[in-house]
Amino acid sequence: MKKAVHFGAGNIGRGFIGKLLADSDVAVTFADVNGPLIDQLSHEQKYKVRVVGTESTVDEVRHISAVNALSEDVIERIATTDLVTTAVGPNVLDKIARTIAQGLQKRFEQGNEASLNIIACENMVRGSTHLKAEVYKHLTEDEQAKADTLVGFVDSAVDRIVPPMDAANDDPLEVTVERFSEWIVDDQQFKGEIPAINGMERTSNLMAYVERKLFTLNTGHCITAYLGCLAGYRTIREAIGDPVIRTDVMQAMMESGEVLIQRYGFDRDAHYAYIDKIIERFANPYLIDEVSRVGREPIRKLGKNDRLIRPLLGTIEYGTANDALLKGIAAALKYKNATDPQATELQDYLQQHGVTKTLAHYCGLAETSKEAQSIESIYSQL
After folding, report:
1. What is the pLDDT of residue 34?
2. Domain residue ranges of the chain, discontinuous segments joined by +
3. Does domain 3-203 have CATH number 3.40.50.720?
4. What is the distance of C-alpha 121 from the center of its chain?
5. C-alpha span between 123 and 102 (Å, rounded)
6. Would you identify the CATH topology of the domain 207-381?
7. Nearest partner of 226 among 303, 320, 284, 308, judged by Cα
8. Is 204 helix (H, G, I), strand (E, B) or coil?
C-alpha cells in the first residue's frame, strides 16, 4: 500500500485530499498541531465524511493515522513516505517548510532514493513551487541537488467547498463536504511514477485551471460574501438567493471569465455552464457557509495576485468590461469583522488614508488610475 503524509487535519484535509487519498487505498498519516484532534484520529483511525449534493450520503474514511506536526514522528514518516500533501492554508506553508526539509534530510541520510512527490493543495497560485523555495532555504547545496533529482514539487489547483460545521451526532471528526470536487495537478512536475489517485486529474496546462478556479469559484465566492455582509445576510446561500447579489456575482464571473476566454481559449458556452454550476453550488441547501468566514482575510484576497485584483488586471490587459468586479472590490473594502485582524487593519488604513491610497498600498492599483477612481466612487455609494 502506498503511503502519504498529509499536513493539515482540519475539515479540508479530512474532507477533501485525505479522503481522496484514502479512497484510493493510500495509507494516510495526518500531521497537525491540534493535539486533541491528533489524539482522537490516532485512537479512532477512521472518521466519517458527509457528502452533500442533491442528496446526502455518509462515507467512512479508513487507512489513516495521525502524528503531531511538531514531533520527530512526522520527520520519520516523511523519510519513508511516497507522497506529501498539504491543506494548511497559504500562510502556514512557510511554517512547515523546515519540517519537510528535515524529513528530506532524514530520507537522504537513510539512503532512501525512491522518488517523492510533494503537492501543496492550497488556494494559491503555484503553491508547491513556493513551498519548494521555502524548503530549499533549509537544505545545503548538495541536498538541494539530490532533491532536484528525487523530489517533485507538483503544483495543483483544488476546488471543493468544505465549510466549518458543528460536530454532528457529537462526533468531532465528522466533516461535511459538497459532492463536487476538482484536484488538478501539473503532470510535468512529478518525479518517478505518477500515483493513481481517483479524483486527481492530470494536465500539462495547469495555469489555465488555476486561474479558472481562482477567477470563478474564488472570485464569485468572496464577492457573494462581501455583498452579502453589506446586505445583512448570514450565509452564502442566503446571499446568493438575493436576485440583485446573484446578478452582480454572475456578472463579475462573466467579466473574469472573459479574461480566461481571451487568455486560454476556453469555450465560451462551456465556461458559462461552469459559472452556472458554481452558482448552484453556492445555493446548496446542505452547506451552511457563513459570509463572515468566506470574507475573512480581506487583505490577502485583495492582493494583486489573488481573486479580485488579478482578474481585474486581466480585464485591463484585454480591454474588457469590469464594472461588477469593481463593485466587488469596493464591497471588500467595506468588510468589517472585529475578530479578523486583517479586516481590522484594512479598516484602520482606510480611515487614515482613504480609498485610493488603500488600493495602491494593498492592491498595487495606481491612485490616479480610472479603476481606483471608479472603486472610490462605488465605495461611497455602497
Report:
1. 96
2. 3-203, 207-381
3. yes
4. 7
5. 25
6. N-(1-d-carboxylethyl)-l-norvaline Dehydrogenase; domain 2 (1.10.1040)
7. 308
8. coil
Would you state the pLDDT for residue 148?
98
pTM, two decimal places: 0.83
Q: What's the Cα-to-Cα distance from 171 to each of 49, 97, 247, rounded to whole Å?
A: 11, 32, 39
Which helix (DSSP H) or strand (DSSP E) does residue 19 occupy? Answer: helix 18-23
C-alpha cell at 195: 500515483
292-316 pLDDT, tens digit each: 999 999 999 999 999 999 999 999 9
Cα–Cα distance, 223 to 281 (Å, whole number): 15
Query: In which region does residue 245 sit, left (phi positive, over 0), alpha (psi from -120 to 50) or beta (all else)?
Result: alpha
Residue pair 9/31 in contact by the 8 Å Cβ criterion: yes
| Distance between CA atoms of residues 82 and 280, nearest Å | 37
Tell me the β-bridge partners of 142. Answer: none
Distance CA 197, CA 195 (A): 6
Average pLDDT over residues 171-194: 94
Helices 141-150 & 127-136, crossing angle to 10 degrees? 150
Q: Minimal CA–CA distance to 47: which of 28, 32, 31, 33?
A: 28
